[in-house]
Amino acid sequence: MVWGAISYHGRSNSIRIEGNLNSNRYVREVLQPEVVPFLQGIPGAIFQQDNARPHVARTVRDFCSAQRMQLLPWPAYSPDMSPIEHVWDMVGRRLARDPRPAVSKDELWLRIQAIWNSLPQADIQHLFDSMPRRIAALIAAHGGCTKY
């Protein structure tokens, strides 16, 4: 698994996560070393994560609360409107353009890191800028219903 975070003006390091990610590993390997410093550089930051089990565990909620991290509430069964999912799609498409198969997980990881680091920040900003339009289209498609 690969993890990364984005903001309008930057991105975190990408992190390679081997094996199963539980809430303790998520705090120890992602939140503490990457998310907290990343958010400290962004005044008024709101951290968005999906409802994956490690993200919603009490351990993680307690850690985020202790760090005074502002979290975006994410309703269960909501459509995924997260800009990061679009970024991972960009990474995947660029990875698929390379005709050479990766000969190892390490080589694949190096390619993913190179793509992550080379994505134009303007492309990420465009995703953020497009969110109001995407949300309006989603609401319109569901007859004005905002509950999922």
From TrEMBL:
Residue ranges of domain Tc1-like transposase DDE in the record: 2-100
Coiled coil, from the record: none
GO terms of molecular function: nucleic acid binding
InterPro entries on file: RNaseH_sf, Tc1-like_DDE_dom
Gene3D superfamilies linked to this entry: Ribonuclease H-like superfamily/Ribonuclease H (3.30.420.10)
Protein's name in the database: Transposable element Tcb1 transposase
